[in-house]
Write a structure and sequence with these properties.
The chain is α/β, with parallel strands linked by helices. The chain has seven helices and seven strands. The chain has a seven-stranded mixed beta sheet, sandwiched between helices. One of its GO terms (cellular component) is cytoplasm.
């Protein structure tokens, strides 16, 4: 290989006070091609490429006009939406602060708060045709607890999508290894024409994350006539 194409493996110098796990994380960041590519292309996080790869496979951004980004910080997914669908209205929400993004309305609040769905609807100005969720609960180190907490977020995001998508819309959410549990999978299949799971190449091999992709929202059923 030429010097210009050779992959240079960077070594991390040890520093006083830095833990071994911190050193491993830093080494992984320095040698991660997605991190380098994100920096070169101006994306705020390597996670941007997960959405790009999911879109390439499933066409989830095709025709998107109103998009909700749940767990928006630091903004990588919204950047992708704005780049690929520059005319789309995008609203993002996160408990963490997010630096302003051109063309994106940002709400700093807890998505699980009672007032969050109404705030998102008001900011979007109409029904969404795409709801994205890259949310994950803060881990406590107990596998079962972490799974339950994250799936609780996914379930809430699913109901938000069902109540706010227009017919034909799509919902994409991060889940953990094993995919969506049976009850939630059944709910998604009831409301969407297709439901699939995928692990984009940009997801680290050692990561337990997968994504559920639900497309072709059937619409919210109207009241029964009696």
């Amino acid at each position: 290989m030429t010097r210009g194409t050779r992959d240079v493996h960077k070594r991390v110098r040890t520093a006083r006070g830095r833990t071994a796990s911190s050193n491993r994380w830093l080494a992984r960041q320095l040698n991660d091609p997605y991190v380098r590519q994100a920096k070169a292309e101006g994306y705020r996080s390597r996670a941007a490429y997960k959405l790009i790869e999911l879109d390439e496979k499933f066409g989830i951004l095709k025709g998107a006009r109103r998009v909700v980004d749940l767990g928006v910080a630091p903004g990588g997914w919204s950047q992708v939406v704005r780049k690929l669908r520059p005319g789309a209205a995008v609203v993002g929400i996160d408990l963490l602060p997010t630096e302003p993004l051109e063309g994106v309305t940002l709400l700093q609040m807890d998505f699980m708060a009672d007032e969050a769905p109404a705030a998102l609807r008001d900011a979007l100005g109409g029904p969404a045709d795409l709801v994205l969720s890259d949310m994950a609960a803060n881990t406590v180190g107990h596998k079962q607890t972490d799974h339950l907490r994250t799936m609780g977020l996914v379930e809430t995001a699913t109901w938000f999508a069902i109540e706010n998508l227009e017919p034909g819309g799509a919902f994409v959410a991060k889940v953990l290894a094993g995919g969506t549990d049976a009850a939630l999978l059944s709910l998604l299949k009831t409301h969407f024409r297709t439901v699939k799971h995928a692990k984009p190449p940009a997801s680290r091999k050692g990561s337990s994350e997968w994504y559920v992709i639900a497309q072709g929202f059937k619409g919210t059923p109207g009241p029964q006539e009696g």
